[in-house]
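ARCHIVE CARD
Drawer: 12
Card no.: 0347
Subject: one protein chain, sequence and derived structure
Cross-reference: see card 0346
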Amino acid sequence: MPIFPGSLNVALDAAFGWFAPEIERRTIWFGREEYGGARDILLVPCVLDNLNAERAMLWTQATAARERPDPWVVEVIAGVNLRATYGLSDGDVVEILIASDGSPHIEPEA
């Protein structure tokens, strides 16, 4: 999946548990050795249900996932500029779906 060089911060109703078992089994752990970076990256595939079922990823650095001062905020990356493509403004609602069964496929609700 190509990635637009920028992320969309989304404030959730509660803290996001990057290391909760139901999230951890969906997480792609991208080690710094694989890309020559300074930190490991965590990616969780998702679908932005109210944005034309846009496929996206939640992402964070592994250290930030443990130490983030605002754990209710997630960063979303996608193949398009989400703000421009969907006309998003601060405060707009973004519905994020993550498969709950650990499968690699996410089906938006009909």
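Annotation on reverse: Residues 8-97 form a domain with the Elongation Factor Tu (Ef-tu); domain 3 fold (CATH 2.40.30.30). The helical segments are 21-24, 32-35, 62-67, 82-86.
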